[in-house]
Amino acid sequence: MESERQRDPTGGTHGAPSGTSDLEDFGFSHLVLEVGDLDKSEAWYRDVAGIEVLGRGILAEPLPHTVLKMNTGQLLVLVQVEAPEPRRKNSASIHHAFWLTLDQYRKAQDRLSAAGIDISDERAAFRSKGELSMDAWDPDGHHWQVQSEAADEAQAVITPGVGVYDCGPAEKFEVGSVTSFGEANIFLIRDEKGFLALSRWCRHRNGILANQPEHWRFFCNFHGATYNYCGDHTGHMRDVPPLRMNPISIRGDGHVLVDTDVVIERDPDQPPTYVPAPVAQAR
Fold it and tell me: Where in the chain is the domain with CATH 3.10.180.10?
């Protein structure tokens, strides 16, 4: 399977941010897999996974083996043994993974589907927008996860389609409160400076954020991004911008209105803009 890991300063979906490791530009030489039937496995990795076969018996390995080469230069070595062990006992989560460009991913879908492999993602509900994944098992049960990303979806501005949303009377929001509105997909922050409306979409990969009041932060369950109650990113990934904001107005009867159709972005060095609470409610 053709694999290509495109550089991403935020670390992509799982990787560490680029430039943060002593192993920058480090790669592996080869991966060795035990197989029971070399003919069958070689055909699977060649025809289904799409990996180039370099030849058989070309390494200093006494057992029958096939060497394949990925387009990134790493080698995959299939070694025939009597009883291959694709995973150790009590380690069902062990797997290997390919990261592909979107075009490569679509081609891999076609090949896997043509081979009768179910390419649906049973964990789609647990992935952020634009995150693509499918699973395949070779003839011996080696588990491969194939991943990619539709960047447009991962970074798109998503509006809930509810227009101007009425959050209710200002006096019901105590100073220091953080209220989540699922229909509007916003957090309404009541600060001493007034009101602030923040989008619940994570700026890393468009996952829905959860409020963690015990830590005074918002948390993304998909890749671990965190934000403070001003919307500033406080997590381990680089170059993740602050949360998007929505404009707020206070109606004549004191209700807090949030325009969810209008999205405001700010730079990390710019403070968020609060809307003062009504005089009768300001404290």
Answer: 30-155
Which residues face 60 on adjacent strands? none
Q: How far apart are the first and last CA of the chain?
A: 62
DSSP state of 46: I
Contact 179, 133 (CB under 8 A): no
Residues 3-56: tens digit of each pLDDT: 544 444 444 555 444 455 565 666 778 999 999 999 999 999 999 999 999 999
Level-2 CATH architecture, domain 30-155: Roll (3.10)
Q: Which residues contact 16 (CB under 8 A, 6 or more apart)?
A: none
Predicted confidence (pLDDT) per residue in 100-137, tens digit: 999 999 999 999 999 999 999 888 877 888 889 999 99
- List the beta bridge partners of residue 145: 97, 135
Cα–Cα distance measured from residue 56 to residue 114, given in angstroms and rounded to the nearest whole number: 26
Q: Output Rg (C-alpha) for the chain, integer angstroms.
A: 25
pTM (2 decimals)? 0.70
Gap between the Cα atoms of 186 and 124, Å rounded: 23
Where does the chain hold its CATH 2.102.10.10 domain(s)?
164-259
